[in-house]
TrEMBL record:
Lineage per the UniProt record: Eukaryota, Viridiplantae, Streptophyta, Embryophyta, Tracheophyta
Cellular location(s): Cytoplasm; Nucleus
UniProt keyword list: Cytoplasm, Membrane, Nucleus, Signalosome, Transmembrane, Transmembrane helix
Domain MPN: 11-153
S-adenosyl-L-methionine listed as a keyword: no
GO CC annotation terms, alphabetical: COP9 signalosome; cytoplasm
The protein's name: COP9 signalosome complex subunit 6
Organism this protein belongs to: Populus alba x Populus x berolinensis
GO terms classed as biological process: COP9 signalosome assembly; protein deneddylation
Cytoplasm in keyword set: yes
Family classification: Belongs to the peptidase M67A family. CSN6 subfamily.
CDD domains in alphabetical order: MPN_CSN6
Role, per record: Component of the COP9 signalosome complex (CSN), a complex involved in various cellular and developmental processes such as photomorphogenesis and auxin and jasmonate responses. The CSN complex is an essential regulator of the ubiquitin (Ubl) conjugation pathway by mediating the deneddylation of the cullin subunits of SCF-type E3 ligase complexes, leading to decrease the Ubl ligase activity of SCF. It is involved in repression of photomorphogenesis in darkness by regulating the activity of COP1-containing Ubl ligase complexes.
Protein backbone atom coordinates (compact mmCIF):
# COMPACT_ATOMS: atom_id res chain seq x y z
CA UNK A 1 0.00 0.00 0.00
CA UNK A 2 1.08 3.55 -0.66
CA UNK A 3 1.59 5.81 2.31
CA UNK A 4 -1.06 8.41 1.54
CA UNK A 5 -3.67 9.34 -1.03
CA UNK A 6 -3.10 11.90 -3.76
CA UNK A 7 -6.76 12.45 -4.68
CA UNK A 8 -7.11 15.65 -2.65
CA UNK A 9 -10.45 14.61 -1.18
CA UNK A 10 -11.46 15.77 2.29
CA UNK A 11 -13.16 13.14 4.43
CA UNK A 12 -15.46 13.91 7.36
CA UNK A 13 -16.46 10.96 9.53
CA UNK A 14 -19.39 11.08 11.95
CA UNK A 15 -19.26 9.25 15.31
CA UNK A 16 -22.42 7.30 14.46
CA UNK A 17 -20.46 5.30 11.89
CA UNK A 18 -17.84 4.30 14.47
CA UNK A 19 -20.56 3.35 16.98
CA UNK A 20 -22.38 1.25 14.37
CA UNK A 21 -19.23 -0.64 13.36
CA UNK A 22 -18.29 -1.25 16.99
CA UNK A 23 -21.80 -2.47 17.80
CA UNK A 24 -21.79 -4.76 14.75
CA UNK A 25 -18.45 -6.29 15.75
CA UNK A 26 -19.51 -6.72 19.40
CA UNK A 27 -22.71 -8.55 18.46
CA UNK A 28 -20.96 -10.89 16.03
CA UNK A 29 -18.18 -11.62 18.52
CA UNK A 30 -20.66 -12.32 21.33
CA UNK A 31 -22.62 -14.71 19.11
CA UNK A 32 -19.41 -16.47 18.07
CA UNK A 33 -18.32 -16.88 21.70
CA UNK A 34 -21.76 -18.20 22.63
CA UNK A 35 -21.63 -20.85 19.90
CA UNK A 36 -18.06 -21.96 20.64
CA UNK A 37 -17.48 -25.12 22.70
CA UNK A 38 -14.77 -23.56 24.84
CA UNK A 39 -11.89 -25.18 22.94
CA UNK A 40 -9.06 -23.36 21.24
CA UNK A 41 -9.45 -19.61 20.87
CA UNK A 42 -10.90 -18.70 17.48
CA UNK A 43 -9.57 -15.71 15.53
CA UNK A 44 -11.53 -12.48 15.93
CA UNK A 45 -14.41 -12.26 13.47
CA UNK A 46 -14.55 -9.72 10.67
CA UNK A 47 -17.71 -7.77 9.93
CA UNK A 48 -18.67 -5.99 6.74
CA UNK A 49 -21.03 -3.17 5.87
CA UNK A 50 -21.68 -0.15 3.68
CA UNK A 51 -21.08 3.49 4.60
CA UNK A 52 -23.45 6.15 3.30
CA UNK A 53 -23.35 9.92 3.14
CA UNK A 54 -22.94 12.79 0.72
CA UNK A 55 -20.18 14.22 -1.44
CA UNK A 56 -20.07 17.95 -2.09
CA UNK A 57 -17.30 18.74 -4.52
CA UNK A 58 -14.05 17.53 -2.98
CA UNK A 59 -15.59 16.95 0.46
CA UNK A 60 -16.90 13.49 1.35
CA UNK A 61 -19.02 13.33 4.53
CA UNK A 62 -19.83 9.88 5.93
CA UNK A 63 -22.99 10.04 8.05
CA UNK A 64 -24.19 6.49 8.64
CA UNK A 65 -23.68 2.82 7.84
CA UNK A 66 -25.54 -0.47 7.57
CA UNK A 67 -24.54 -4.13 7.65
CA UNK A 68 -23.57 -6.00 4.52
CA UNK A 69 -24.29 -9.64 3.67
CA UNK A 70 -21.01 -10.97 2.30
CA UNK A 71 -19.85 -14.53 1.62
CA UNK A 72 -16.07 -14.70 2.31
CA UNK A 73 -15.80 -18.03 0.47
CA UNK A 74 -17.26 -16.96 -2.86
CA UNK A 75 -16.44 -13.25 -2.37
CA UNK A 76 -19.99 -12.37 -3.37
CA UNK A 77 -22.36 -9.69 -2.11
CA UNK A 78 -26.09 -9.93 -1.61
CA UNK A 79 -27.10 -7.33 -4.22
CA UNK A 80 -30.87 -7.43 -3.55
CA UNK A 81 -30.18 -6.75 0.13
CA UNK A 82 -27.99 -3.73 -0.73
CA UNK A 83 -30.57 -2.33 -3.14
CA UNK A 84 -33.36 -2.78 -0.58
CA UNK A 85 -31.38 -1.03 2.18
CA UNK A 86 -30.42 1.80 -0.16
CA UNK A 87 -34.05 2.23 -1.17
CA UNK A 88 -35.15 2.43 2.46
CA UNK A 89 -32.49 5.02 3.30
CA UNK A 90 -33.45 7.08 0.25
CA UNK A 91 -36.98 7.45 1.62
CA UNK A 92 -35.70 9.07 4.81
CA UNK A 93 -32.46 10.64 3.57
CA UNK A 94 -32.90 11.34 -0.15
CA UNK A 95 -29.44 12.91 -0.47
CA UNK A 96 -27.54 9.94 0.98
CA UNK A 97 -25.97 7.33 -1.24
CA UNK A 98 -23.45 4.54 -0.81
CA UNK A 99 -19.93 5.96 -0.51
CA UNK A 100 -18.10 2.69 0.15
CA UNK A 101 -17.85 -0.01 2.75
CA UNK A 102 -16.38 -0.85 6.15
CA UNK A 103 -14.73 -3.77 7.88
CA UNK A 104 -12.74 -4.61 11.01
CA UNK A 105 -9.12 -5.62 11.38
CA UNK A 106 -5.67 -4.31 12.12
CA UNK A 107 -4.78 -3.62 8.48
CA UNK A 108 -6.22 -3.89 4.99
CA UNK A 109 -5.83 -7.33 3.45
CA UNK A 110 -5.49 -8.44 -0.16
CA UNK A 111 -8.87 -10.18 0.00
CA UNK A 112 -10.50 -6.84 0.83
CA UNK A 113 -9.94 -5.76 -2.76
CA UNK A 114 -12.60 -8.28 -3.89
CA UNK A 115 -15.31 -6.42 -1.96
CA UNK A 116 -13.89 -3.10 -3.07
CA UNK A 117 -14.09 -4.04 -6.74
CA UNK A 118 -17.57 -5.51 -6.27
CA UNK A 119 -18.86 -2.13 -5.06
CA UNK A 120 -17.39 -0.20 -7.98
CA UNK A 121 -20.55 -0.70 -10.02
CA UNK A 122 -22.42 1.21 -7.29
CA UNK A 123 -19.73 3.85 -6.66
CA UNK A 124 -16.83 4.09 -9.07
CA UNK A 125 -14.50 5.34 -6.31
CA UNK A 126 -15.62 3.67 -3.08
CA UNK A 127 -13.96 4.43 0.24
CA UNK A 128 -12.91 1.76 2.71
CA UNK A 129 -13.35 2.46 6.45
CA UNK A 130 -11.35 0.05 8.62
CA UNK A 131 -11.89 -0.17 12.39
CA UNK A 132 -9.30 -1.91 14.54
CA UNK A 133 -11.21 -3.53 17.46
CA UNK A 134 -8.04 -4.40 19.39
CA UNK A 135 -7.63 -2.40 22.60
CA UNK A 136 -4.40 -0.42 22.83
CA UNK A 137 -4.29 1.83 25.94
CA UNK A 138 -1.19 3.63 24.66
CA UNK A 139 -2.88 4.68 21.42
CA UNK A 140 -4.06 8.29 21.38
CA UNK A 141 -5.70 8.44 17.95
CA UNK A 142 -8.91 6.73 16.96
CA UNK A 143 -8.39 3.16 15.68
CA UNK A 144 -10.06 4.06 12.39
CA UNK A 145 -8.39 4.25 8.99
CA UNK A 146 -9.92 5.41 5.71
CA UNK A 147 -8.56 3.97 2.49
CA UNK A 148 -8.99 4.95 -1.13
CA UNK A 149 -8.03 2.89 -4.15
CA UNK A 150 -5.53 4.07 -6.74
CA UNK A 151 -4.30 2.47 -9.92
CA UNK A 152 -0.54 1.89 -9.78
CA UNK A 153 1.73 0.14 -12.24
CA UNK A 154 3.65 -2.61 -10.43
CA UNK A 155 6.12 -4.73 -12.42
CA UNK A 156 4.56 -3.41 -15.61
CA UNK A 157 1.07 -4.52 -14.55
CA UNK A 158 -1.60 -1.94 -13.56
CA UNK A 159 -3.03 -2.86 -10.15
CA UNK A 160 -5.48 -1.31 -7.71
CA UNK A 161 -3.99 -0.75 -4.27
CA UNK A 162 -5.27 0.79 -1.04
CA UNK A 163 -3.86 4.15 0.03
CA UNK A 164 -4.48 5.88 3.36
CA UNK A 165 -6.48 9.09 3.51
CA UNK A 166 -6.69 11.62 6.31
CA UNK A 167 -10.03 12.46 7.87
CA UNK A 168 -11.64 14.62 10.54
CA UNK A 169 -14.44 13.86 12.98
CA UNK A 170 -17.60 15.82 12.25
CA UNK A 171 -20.52 15.89 14.68
CA UNK A 172 -24.01 17.33 14.89
CA UNK A 173 -25.81 18.31 18.08
CA UNK A 174 -27.63 14.99 18.50
CA UNK A 175 -24.38 13.05 18.10
CA UNK A 176 -22.56 15.23 20.62
CA UNK A 177 -25.29 14.67 23.20
CA UNK A 178 -25.32 10.91 22.59
CA UNK A 179 -21.55 10.54 22.72
CA UNK A 180 -21.38 12.63 25.90
CA UNK A 181 -24.11 10.49 27.47
CA UNK A 182 -22.27 7.28 26.61
CA UNK A 183 -19.00 8.70 27.94
CA UNK A 184 -20.62 9.44 31.32
CA UNK A 185 -22.36 6.10 31.79
CA UNK A 186 -21.72 4.49 35.16
CA UNK A 187 -19.36 1.52 34.82
CA UNK A 188 -20.83 -1.93 35.33
CA UNK A 189 -18.35 -2.81 38.08
CA UNK A 190 -20.03 -0.35 40.45
CA UNK A 191 -17.55 2.48 40.17
CA UNK A 192 -18.19 5.36 42.51
CA UNK A 193 -19.00 8.94 41.57
CA UNK A 194 -15.45 9.91 42.50
CA UNK A 195 -14.12 7.40 39.99
CA UNK A 196 -16.33 8.84 37.26
CA UNK A 197 -15.24 12.37 38.16
CA UNK A 198 -11.60 11.35 38.07
CA UNK A 199 -12.09 9.76 34.65
CA UNK A 200 -13.87 12.88 33.41
CA UNK A 201 -11.14 15.19 34.68
CA UNK A 202 -8.49 12.90 33.22
CA UNK A 203 -10.18 13.15 29.84
CA UNK A 204 -10.30 16.94 30.05
CA UNK A 205 -6.66 17.06 31.12
CA UNK A 206 -5.64 14.84 28.20
CA UNK A 207 -7.59 17.00 25.76
CA UNK A 208 -6.02 20.22 27.06
CA UNK A 209 -2.58 18.62 27.04
CA UNK A 210 -3.02 17.52 23.43
CA UNK A 211 -4.30 20.99 22.45
CA UNK A 212 -1.28 22.58 24.10
CA UNK A 213 1.11 20.24 22.27
CA UNK A 214 -0.55 20.96 18.92
CA UNK A 215 -0.33 24.71 19.52
CA UNK A 216 3.36 24.37 20.39
CA UNK A 217 4.01 22.46 17.17
CA UNK A 218 2.15 25.09 15.17
CA UNK A 219 4.06 27.91 16.88
CA UNK A 220 7.44 26.28 16.26
CA UNK A 221 6.48 25.70 12.64
CA UNK A 222 5.55 29.36 12.11
CA UNK A 223 8.73 30.55 13.83
CA UNK A 224 10.86 28.29 11.64
CA UNK A 225 9.02 29.50 8.56
CA UNK A 226 9.58 33.13 9.58
CA UNK A 227 13.31 32.49 10.03
CA UNK A 228 13.51 30.86 6.62
CA UNK A 229 14.52 27.46 8.00
CA UNK A 230 11.67 25.74 6.15
CA UNK A 231 9.93 26.73 2.91
CA UNK A 232 6.80 28.84 3.05
CA UNK A 233 3.54 27.04 2.24
CA UNK A 234 0.66 29.37 1.49
CA UNK A 235 -2.00 26.69 1.94
CA UNK A 236 -0.93 26.05 5.54
CA UNK A 237 -0.68 29.77 6.24
CA UNK A 238 -4.24 30.23 5.02
CA UNK A 239 -5.41 27.48 7.37
CA UNK A 240 -3.59 29.10 10.29
CA UNK A 241 -5.07 32.47 9.38
CA UNK A 242 -8.54 30.95 9.23
CA UNK A 243 -7.99 29.41 12.66
CA UNK A 244 -6.84 32.67 14.19
CA UNK A 245 -9.78 34.60 12.74
CA UNK A 246 -12.12 32.50 14.86
CA UNK A 247 -10.58 33.68 18.13
CA UNK A 248 -11.84 37.31 18.19
CA UNK A 249 -15.41 36.00 17.97
CA UNK A 250 -15.06 34.80 21.57
CA UNK A 251 -14.46 38.38 22.73
CA UNK A 252 -17.67 39.75 21.24
CA UNK A 253 -20.06 41.91 23.23
CA UNK A 254 -22.76 39.25 23.15
CA UNK A 255 -20.33 36.69 24.58
CA UNK A 256 -19.37 39.06 27.40
CA UNK A 257 -23.03 39.74 28.24
CA UNK A 258 -23.90 36.05 28.25
CA UNK A 259 -20.80 35.22 30.28
CA UNK A 260 -21.56 37.89 32.91
CA UNK A 261 -25.18 36.76 33.11
CA UNK A 262 -24.14 33.16 33.69
CA UNK A 263 -21.48 34.27 36.16
CA UNK A 264 -24.02 36.33 38.14
CA UNK A 265 -26.50 33.46 38.12
CA UNK A 266 -23.81 31.17 39.49
CA UNK A 267 -22.95 33.64 42.26
CA UNK A 268 -26.63 34.06 43.11
CA UNK A 269 -27.09 30.31 43.44
CA UNK A 270 -23.99 30.11 45.64
CA UNK A 271 -25.28 32.92 47.88
CA UNK A 272 -28.71 31.31 48.17
CA UNK A 273 -27.10 28.01 49.11
CA UNK A 274 -25.01 29.77 51.76
CA UNK A 275 -28.07 31.57 53.20
CA UNK A 276 -30.00 28.31 53.21
CA UNK A 277 -27.23 26.60 55.16
CA UNK A 278 -27.13 29.50 57.64
CA UNK A 279 -30.90 29.38 58.09
CA UNK A 280 -30.77 25.65 58.64
CA UNK A 281 -28.04 26.13 61.24
CA UNK A 282 -30.09 28.81 63.07
CA UNK A 283 -33.14 26.55 63.11
CA UNK A 284 -31.03 23.69 64.40
CA UNK A 285 -29.62 25.85 67.25
CA UNK A 286 -33.11 27.07 68.15
CA UNK A 287 -34.36 23.49 68.18
CA UNK A 288 -31.51 22.42 70.49
CA UNK A 289 -32.31 25.26 72.91
CA UNK A 290 -35.98 24.29 73.01
CA UNK A 291 -35.13 20.64 73.58
CA UNK A 292 -32.74 21.58 76.37
CA UNK A 293 -35.39 23.67 78.07
CA UNK A 294 -38.02 20.97 77.75
CA UNK A 295 -35.71 18.40 79.32
CA UNK A 296 -33.72 20.46 81.81
CA UNK A 297 -36.48 22.64 83.36
CA UNK A 298 -38.70 19.72 84.57
CA UNK A 299 -35.60 17.98 85.92
CA UNK A 300 -34.61 21.11 87.83
CA UNK A 301 -38.09 21.40 89.34
CA UNK A 302 -37.96 17.75 90.39
CA UNK A 303 -34.67 18.33 92.20
CA UNK A 304 -36.07 21.29 94.15
CA UNK A 305 -39.11 19.22 95.09
CA UNK A 306 -36.96 16.40 96.48
CA UNK A 307 -34.84 18.82 98.50
CA UNK A 308 -37.84 20.50 100.08
CA UNK A 309 -39.75 17.26 100.66
CA UNK A 310 -37.08 14.98 102.06
CA UNK A 311 -34.49 17.44 103.19
CA UNK A 312 -31.97 16.22 100.66
CA UNK A 313 -28.82 18.22 100.25
CA UNK A 314 -26.31 18.33 97.52
CA UNK A 315 -22.70 17.61 98.21
Amino acid sequence: MASSSSSGLTFKLHPLVIVNISDHYTRVKSQANGCSDGGSASPPPRVYGCVIGVQRGRTVEIFNSFELLYDPVTHSLDRPFIEKKQELYKKVFPHFYILGWYSTGSDAEESDMHIHKALMDINESPVYVLLNPSINPAQKDLPVTIYESELHVIDGIPQLIFVCSSYTIETVEAERISVDHVAHLKPSDGGSAATQLAAHLTGIHSAIKMLNSRIRVLHHYLVAMQKGEIPCENSLLRQVSSLLRRLPAIESEKFQDDFLMEYNDTLLIAYLAMFTNCSRYDIWVFFCVIQTCLVFVPFKRFCFFCINKFGMTTS
